[in-house]
Design goal:
The protein is of the alpha+beta class and 342 residues long. The protein contains four helices and 28 strands. Among the domains are: 51 residues; 38 residues, no CATH class. The strands form 13 sheets. Strands 23, 24, 25 and 26 form a four-stranded antiparallel β-sheet that branches. Strands 1-2 form a two-stranded antiparallel sheet. The protein has a two-stranded antiparallel ribbon with strand order 3-4. GO terms for molecular function: calcium ion binding. Its main location: membrane. Pfam families: EGF (PF00008), EGF_DL_JAG (PF21700), hEGF (PF12661).
Length: 342
């Protein structure tokens, strides 16, 4: 409740004043060690200085900021400086004159020289992105991995690259094929097919051209009749009708007439050469069958004669046999016999 009352009183005071009776001035925001006589002032107390009274005027005695045996000198308004001994540098003489300073800070292309505040034996360079080397002297070739596609040209930069795309492609890596059908170039209801830096139009009937912008004339059909039967190389054709296609000419042009014949061909008989071939083939077949029958009959007749000869009694003790005869002479039978093997 008391807090609410105080808040209400503050709200009732003029801007820059506060207190139970609005008798206290409001200090400048951020004022640490100061006071005010008028609103938004910052009047420093003894021993403090600065715009916000935040700096100790006795810093050299109280904080001893200078290092490595350096002498602290107060410069007024809360500022100081350090008189560094030989071999040291920095605001507080905290850095030793080491390899970086002796080499004249050799790191290139924005690289930072590091030598552990001068206490390291050698220096090292901490390079910015896109540079390598002992002194950060080499620019990394960002095009080495060939990031650009579709024949694009890669241009190396500092820790970056850019692609110069071929005609028909776009995007950071030139991987996007530009849609050449986006502008709807095909006319008269034609269907568009995107290509690389090109397009094709599938025209409907009655139109032609790159974008189907040319109208083709409609053909006029005239029907007339020809004689029913005509001979052509021995085959009989039955012509039902002929169609005459007349294309209307342009002014001053020529008239183009195309004739289309609708023909039905009936089954024709064998030609003379085909008949001769069939006849010869039949004669040869019959002759082959006849020869085969004669050979079979001859072999059967020879077999019967040999069988009768082997069964007749022998008139002599010795018989002379042909090598090809199937009968075999046997001397172990009395009287001597011929044993025939069939």
């Amino acid at each position: 409740l008391v807090y609410i009352v105080l808040l209400l009183r503050m709200l009732l005071c003029d801007p820059g004043w506060e207190g139970e009776y609005c008798e206290q001035c409001v200090r400048m925001p951020g004022c640490l060690h100061g006071t005010c006589h008028q609103p938004w002032q910052c009047i420093c107390h003894n021993g403090w200085a600065g715009k916000f009274c935040d700096k100790d005027v006795h810093i050299c005695e109280h904080e001893l900021p200078c290092q490595n045996g350096a002498e602290c000198v107060y410069d007024g308004d809360g500022e100081y400086s350090c008189l560094c001994p030989e071999g040291f540098h920095g605001k507080d003489c905290e850095r030793k004159t080491g390899p970086c300073e002796k080499a004249g800070f050799p790191c290139r292309n924005g690289g930072q020289c590091q030598d552990e505040n001068g206490f390291a034996r050698n220096f090292t360079c901490r390079c910015l992105a896109g540079f390598v080397g002992a002194l950060c002297e080499n620019d990394v070739d960002d095009c080495l991995m060939r990031p650009c596609a579709n024949g694009a040209t890669c241009h190396d930069g500092i820790n970056r690259f850019s692609c110069q795309c071929q005609v028909g492609f776009e995007g950071r890596f030139c991987t996007i094929n530009i849609d050449d059908c986006a502008s709807r170039p095909c006319k008269n209801g034609a269907k568009c097919y995107d290509r690389i830096h090109d397009f094709d139009c599938l025209c409907p009937d009655g139109f032609t051209g790159k974008t189907c912008e040319v109208s083709t004339p409609e053909p006029t059909w005239v029907t007339f009749y020809l004689p029913a039967n005509r001979e052509n190389n021995g085959a009989v054709k039955s012509t039902t009708s002929e169609h005459l296609w007349v294309t209307q000419p342009d002014e001053g042009g020529l008239l183009k007439i195309s004739v289309k014949e609708v023909v039905t061909q009936r089954d024709a008989g064998l030609s003379e050469s085909q008949l001769v071939t069939v006849l010869v083939f039949g004669i040869l077949t019959a002759a082959l069958v006849l020869v085969t029958i004669l050979l079979i009959l001859r072999n059967r007749q020879r077999g019967r004669r040999r069988s009768n000869w082997c069964q007749s009694p022998s008139q002599a003790n010795v018989l002379y046999l042909a090598a090809a005869d199937p009968c075999v002479f046997s001397p172990f039978t009395k009287p001597f016999k011929l044993v025939c093997v069939f």
